[in-house]
Amino acid sequence: MTRYIFVTGGVLSSVGKGTVCASIGKILQVRGFTVSAIKIDPYLNVDAGTMNPYMHGEVYVCEDGGEMDLDLGTYERFLNINVSREANITTGLVYREVIEKERRGDYLGKCVQIIPHITDEIKRRLRNVAEKTKVDVILVECGGTIGDIEGLPFYEAFRQMRLEEGMQNTVFVHVPLVPILDATKEQKSKPAQHSIQELRRIGLQPDLIVARSRKMLDPDPHDKIALFGSIDRKAVFTSPNVRNIYEIPLILDKQGLGDFVCRRFGLSNRKPDWSSWRQIVNSYINAEHEVKIAVCGKYAMLSDSYVSINEALRCGAAAASSRVSIDWIETEVFEKEPNSIEALAEYDGILVPGGFGVRATEGKIAAIRYAREKNIPFLGICFGFQLAVIEYARNICSLENSNSTELNPNPQHPVVFLLPEQNKVSYKGGTMRLGASPVVIKADTLAYRLYGVNLAYERHRHRYEVNPAYIQTLIDHGLIFSGTTPDETRMEILELPNHYFFFATQFHPEFKSRPGRPDPAYYGFIKASLDKKLGNTTLTLDREALYEAESKYLR
Ligand code: GLN
pTM (2 decimals)? Predict the structure, then answer.
């Protein structure tokens, strides 16, 4: 029997609703309950895969290859679970299903309507996840804010779920922003009051409210929110700004949120065991050192574009007793002003992330060359891996006009080209090489030192690959492909032997990095950046820090 917690947002989106949702899950998990989470995105896209990260933040890829909203990454990291593609529900997905059924004749003779057909399909999808995961509690977060037209069918489905599943099995959580005025430093509850009214207008009475504010709610706005929300003072909580988002579950539980939810569900209140979570949080806070990392990409202005990379760096740093300061560098600058590349000299490590399309690419290649020539620790991810191959072909193998056919349809040396199976693909949605697949790791390589196993399952999201026709030339000139697909046809990891740390992966290790369980590639990169900064002649790896990481690859 699964219970449901529905989380809605008020006033503004992007205020940290996903973190609150994941934190409530954690609070239940440390009490011994099993939990999972679903994200609803009321936009018309079928999935997040075709959206620009600049508008909607990063596209998160789960184990089964679903291209999902970034909140799913937050759930996986907080709850240390693997979600499936079914955990992200969009309007596009729901309508597509209903319209297909209508065409098939499943509703023959009926007028197909938002209520009940769309709402039924939404409820079916929610229950389907409950049935498959068999968890005690499922969190269902609806993206956007109350008042959005697109969200209405989903809110209506929540309302019906309460009737069908029963009051004692459903909890409504509302997360409004409570802004603080610059001039008077006053916390204003009025926008939250309005969003609660809007919530009630569509039939949802919140059971508890988590106010999102820069600091803890003052007594006056706290009382007002309780009064206008028609809930007890004790049902109002604050999620304040913090140094480290992993502190949020602890902060909310300290205010009594766990006890409140358990009472509401009629679950015997088990004692929470926060010991291992607290240890993780402390590892983030009590760092001895700091490393400075330059991430050279093109969506540098919106930090949400690369949440998983940021978190993987922070997680790797925590395992190396370090903090990480991350600067996002827009590589178009290096194209316009080649001398500006010297700015990279002040960094302990350089990362080139995944990406698509030609803009800012030559700047990324320039950054990779700089890292290689100046012996600065380098990590390349997906597109960063492909561009490292292009840089090496051009500047070491003397294949001057090397390129990827993604960037130039007809280069002299197509060292990176379209995956053969992609030739027939014309639809853009959900058609890349996606999800986790096996990577074989060669013995006596840096990759093996990092992973400690010879088979890893890593998550992919790409259409292009290293052209097999150039592999031998690249190897003859010193490049090592230390990871491949099991049939050895597809290159997955590259490294350079005479470099402090030069490592790149065709897959996205950031998607499997979790607090307290750093991904080996990110941990190695941060550790190398730190060791080099401290003047150590070679990289030293702490097997203990990697021990946890290894276990996740053993399937
Ligand atoms: N654009 C490249 C490809 O499709 C890299 C993709 C990525 O970095 N995720 O293969």
Answer: 0.93
pLDDT confidence of residue 547: 59
Read off the tokens for 479.
């490049």
Q: For position 299, what pLDDT does the model report?
A: 66
382 in catalytic set? yes
Q: What is the dihedral of CA 443, 447, 450, 454, to 10 degrees?
A: -50
9 lines ligand 1 (CB under 6 A): no
Whether 262 is catalytic? no
Distance 354 CA to ligand 1 centre (A): 6
For 258-288, the pLDDT digits (tens) are 999 999 999 877 899 999 999 999 999 888 8
Q: Which residues contact 172 (CB under 8 A, 6 or more apart)?
A: 6, 8, 158, 162, 204, 205, 206, 207, 208
Amino acid (1-letter code) at residue 66? G
**Residue 554: predicted pLDDT:** 43
Mutate to test the pocket of ligand 1, among 461, 466, 492 (most ligand atoms within 8 A of CB): 461
Angle CA 171–176–180, to nearest 5: 150
Residues of the chain with pLDDT under 50: 554-555
Pocket probe mutation, ligand 1, options 50, 359, 386, max atoms within 8 Å of Cβ: 386
Strands 491-495 and 480-484: antiparallel
Domains of the chain, earliest start first? 3-272 (3.40.50.300), 281-553 (3.40.50.880)
Cβ atoms of 95 and 118 closer than 8 Å? yes
